[in-house]
Amino acid sequence: MATEWVCVQRQQDECRRYLDQFKVLDHPLKQSTITVLESRGTRGKVSTTANGVSLSSNNSAAMSAAALSLDPLTIAFDGSDPLSQFAKQQSTSLGKDPLSRMAAEMESSVSVPLSPLGSRNSLGKGKEPTNLLELDLIEPWAARRGAILNKYTTSEKLSIVTSFLTGGETIKPQTTMSEKVKYRLEQLDDFDDGSVRQMLDLSQQEYVVKIEQLNHELVQAWNQDQRVKALKIAIQCSKLLSDTSVIQFYPSKFVLITDILDIFGRLVYDRLRTKADYIHPGTREVTSLPESFTPDMVPESAKETCQNWFYKIASIRELLPRLYVEIAILRCYSFLAQDEFGLALRRLTKMIRGIGDPLVAIHARCYLCRVGMSLTLDRTYIGENLDDILAVYHTIFNGGIRSEIARHRITLNGYLSLYLPALDWILQGVAILTTDNQLDDILQRCKEKKNPALLLQSMMQSFRSDFIASRATHFVQILSSISVEGLSRGQLFRLLGSILSHTPPPTEQRTVVLASAMKTISSLGNVEEFMQCAEMWAQYTSQHFGLKEIDTFLGQVLQQMTPNRLYEQHYHELQVIVDKIVSNAQDVHGVLALDNFLPLLELFQKETMKLEVCKNVLTSYRNATAGDNALINDPIVTNALMYISRVLNDSVNALTGEDERRQISGLVCHFIRKVDFGRDFEQQLAFYVEARSVLSNLDSALSTLIHSVNRLATSTRRIVKGQHTQKTAAFVKACAAYCFITIPSIIDVRTRMELYLQSGQVALLNSCLQHADSCFEAALNLIPEMPRMVETDGKMQSTEGFIKTFVVNFLSTLVIVPDNPTQGVLYLLRLLLEVVPKYPFESTSSMLSGIYLHVLDFLSVAAQEVYPYHIVNVISNDELYGSDPKFIAEVNELCCTVCDKLLQHLKALLESNALRAQSQLALDLFLKIITGADLSVDKMFTLTVNLWNLAVKNRSAIDPKQLQTVVMYTEHLAHITQVESQRQCLWLLLDKMKSRM
User: Fold this and answer.
1) Using N-to-C axis directions, what is the helix angle for 749-765 and 769-781, rounded to 10°?
2) Tens digit of each residue's pLDDT (9 = 90 or more) over 625-645
3) Distance between CA 743 and CA 754 in Å, rounded?
4) Under 8 Å CB-to-CB from 664, ≥6 apart: which residues?
5) Among candidate residues 14, 2, 11, 13, the one with its CA nearest the CA of residue 928
6) Cα–Cα distances in Å, from 728 out to 188, 720, 768?
7) Residue 393: what are its φ and ψ, rounded to 5°?
8) What's the per-residue H, E or C state across 342-369?
9) What is its main location (predicted)?
């Protein structure tokens, strides 16, 4: 050996380090934040905060640029985060549907901003509402139109009649006003010329594109002062609403056409307003009309122009376009008279009676009510429209309509659904500011009609939910007894269940409502309808009833699903029922213990569905119990969750994605941590044994089980206060054996090493020395198996840092581990020195030398008479050997061996010209020697001097402050060392060190 290391006895405070110390003003892990008070491009003061230190500058542009450069996303999105930017984009024309985008383009081309009809106007403080929509009591039309367009689609071919999709038309020049008026009146009826074309065989998408083109043509004609052309486009669009050849597409067509009419109406209104110059009383100042103007403020010229528009529209020959176009510009009556809206709305209501097709008529009434609600607070015309609908309601079911339905090859149910958007809107308007007594009258009138199911469905969708809930018993009775031709009774009960799930009925009615409803639902005779209803009533049942009612409900579902394996056709509905029951129940543990819950889960024979359901159940259980301290000790609940966990575990295989595996493991681990049998530790261990046999495919679950068993052993020791009885000693040994047997089942080598070390520490804490030795030995033998690179979060990372951290932790534990008499002195350390070099360290890495330096620290402590820490009832090597000379000789021999390895590494660094690494290693070894070795030995003193010379030889590679700190530390050791020979050597060494500084 090149060295002759002899460990020296020293005080514990000699181990204190005085190296690399510096004063910090704040916690180094505190996250730095920078707050920009002004966005880019603005002038102003910018304040930044970094670790609590406030900075300010007048140069705002420079500061903003510096701050924003820290975040690339901030630069890309001009100071706002991406989601906010996208949300902002949705409010612009880029995020709208094509018609709305065209409307936005049109709005940008006119001088006065347009406010869409049917939208909720923002009211200033103290401003009285002027129409029903401003009351915010009704869902805006804009929120409904998207759902209508998505629901009412068709694959049939469509047609369109127009003369404005082949380009502009030639406008005949007029010289006098009379010629101009005559020409425009002639144009209104000029639809029979050769320019009118009928486009056939259009798909739905092509039809929508043509409608968008008409919308664009209308706006373009208006901007080019071709008012008559714009009016003709509006008329032709209105005429399209009389076509019901593709009847199932009619509600969507209604939405598209009325969008164009809304734009036309806004154009006319804003044009009249810009022409109406207003002179303030007592002044000569001419301004535009204010927002809330009155007819007496409108000049006669503007009123005359307004009347001309209504005259033009009145001259339209066909009823339907005349109605729609007048409704579109109905707002223009505000230029003529104060109370004209009410009269016009009632007049138009009566005119709609002339439309023979009930579907066309109800949509015309819908448009009238929609426009009227945005103009006035008067609701009289809405009631009249409802009266007219009820008066002709029976015609929907007459022979002519049934023949039309048969011709279109749709069912009566499908035909009646076409009425719902319009009927819902009208009934919603009727319900505004209406008393419960008035709504009761409407309900009475509707249920007296023949086949009132359509009316009742629309009523439940449109009336206030509290009105429906307070009369839940009455509604159940009505829905159970009425004729439901064209609709299904199950559809009505499904809707009622949806309402009651969100707005429960009075407490005294809830039981009666559930019993009566389920009685009717169970007797429907159609399993599909039953499941659709049960899917909705499951939430109501789980929210407002106890476990007994929930179990009864599940029993009814089982009764319907079991015969003839019907459950195979209703997996989706069953899944929804299970999810709602588990997620909404007040006592999730009680639900899991119900007699009918597990049998319901057994119905899912399809593996993918069963996996999804079990995952959802465990997710709901985790969400319900995450925030409380409720633990599981009921064997029935435990078995139910164990069954679900088994299903999830069995679904994991080699093809399972990492995210899926992580999600399943998280759910199962939450369940494991929730099981607690209190002081019955044997039953707790029995549960962990069963879980191990069930969860063999989930490494995270096995790891959680091992941690739980170690915690169980630690709790046992705490209860007996470290003094084990024969029974408790046997129990903790069983826990140690459980961990030692379970750890090899885990695939990840790092996890196994950590668990072996932890389990060995727990076994040592409980005086299970043989089990501790086995765990430590197994952990060390895994070091050669550790791959040099592993994938973490999609990135390849080196495991060298983990190996070093693990060894340091292991050495700190090894200080108090007594030697096994059959294995020899420091057997585990010798094994460590044997296996560590087998790990594939990088050739330029300093990790191996760093580990050897820590081994020297351990050996220095092992040679002391008294170790710095102990475990109760565990005799460490200081007591076991009592500083026996043979033991100290073994320690010194190991120190020499490790020191020689470090010197070899120093030589290798010199050969590779790694001067900086060589100087640093020489300095580190120098510190270990002066701390733990006897410098009175000539070889060690000489080695120490040579190491210092080697370190300062390349002083440019080392921080001068570090060298100065080492000198101060050496001087500190010289002052506190009690061994005279060691002190003299340190002072002599100190002189040599200072001479080379």
Assistant:
1) 160
2) 887 778 888 999 999 999 999
3) 10
4) 615, 648, 649, 651, 652, 698
5) 14
6) 102, 8, 12
7) -60, -35
8) HHHHHHHHHHHHHCCCHHHHHHHHHHHH
9) other
Which of these, 618, 610, 606, lies nearest to 663 by C-alpha position? 618
pLDDT tens digits, residue range 8-67? 877 655 444 444 444 444 554 544 443 333 333 333 433 434 344 343 434 433 333 333
User: Distance between CA atoms of 732 and 437, rounded to whole angstroms?
Assistant: 74
Q: Up-side HSE of residue 279: CA atoms within 13 Å toward CB?
A: 6
Place of tokens 């002709």: 392
Q: Contact, 495 vs 484, CB < 8 A?
A: no
Mean pLDDT on 881-892: 90
Bridge partners of 671?
none
- In whole angstroms, give the CA distance from residue 371 to residue 368: 5
Strand duo 795-798 + 277-279: pairing: unpaired
Please name the residues in contact with 326: beta carbons below 8 A apart, sequence gap of 6 or more. Answer: 310, 313, 314, 344, 348
Run of H or E including 300: helix 300-314
Type of residue at 113: P
**Tokens at residue 258, please?**
């009325």
Residue 340 has which token pair? 């004209």
Residues 112/274, Cβ–Cβ less than 8 Å: yes
**CA 628 from centre of chain:** 22
Q: CA-to-CA distance for 96 and 93, rounded, in angstroms?
A: 5
- Residue 380's nearest CA partner among 327, 334, 434 is 434
| CA 417 – CA 419 distance, rounded (Å) | 5
Confidence at residue 196, expressed as pLDDT on a 0 to 100 scale: 62
Question: What's the chain's Rg over C-alpha atoms?
Answer: 43
Instruction: Map residue 630 onto helix, strand or coil.
Output: coil
Cα 52 from Cα 523, distance rounded (Å): 70
Q: Residue 871: what residue type?
A: I
Give the number of residues written for the chain. Answer: 997
For residue 870, the SS3 value is coil
The model's pLDDT over 545-597, given as tens digits with 9 standing for 90+, comes to 999 999 999 999 999 999 888 899 999 999 999 999 999 888 899 999 999 99
Residues 821-854, buried b or exposed e (16+ Cβ, 10 A)?
eeeebbbbbebbbebbeebebeeeebbbbbbbbb
Of 331, 363, 365, residue with least CA distance to 346: 365
Q: Give per-residue pLDDT as tens, 196-215.
A: 667 777 888 988 998 999 99
pLDDT, average across residues 766-791: 92
Residue 439 · residue 467 · CB < 8 Å? yes
Contact 129, 381 (CB under 8 A): no
Residue environment code for 36-64, b if the CB has 16+ CB neighbours within 10 A, otherwise e:
bebeeeeeeebebeeeeeeeeeeebeebb
| Contact status, residue 300 vs residue 366, Cβ threshold 8 Å | no
331: DSSP letter: G
Q: pTM higher than 0.90, yes or no?
A: no
Q: Cα separation of 389 and 907, whole Å?
A: 102
Distance (Å, whole) CA 761 – CA 772: 7
Place of tokens 């009651």: 500
Residue 983, pLDDT > 90, answer no
Q: Residue 56: helix, strand or coil by DSSP?
A: strand
Residue 996 one-letter amino acid: R
Q: Is pLDDT of 238 > 90?
A: yes
Which two three-digit tokens encode residue 887?
Answer: 């033991």
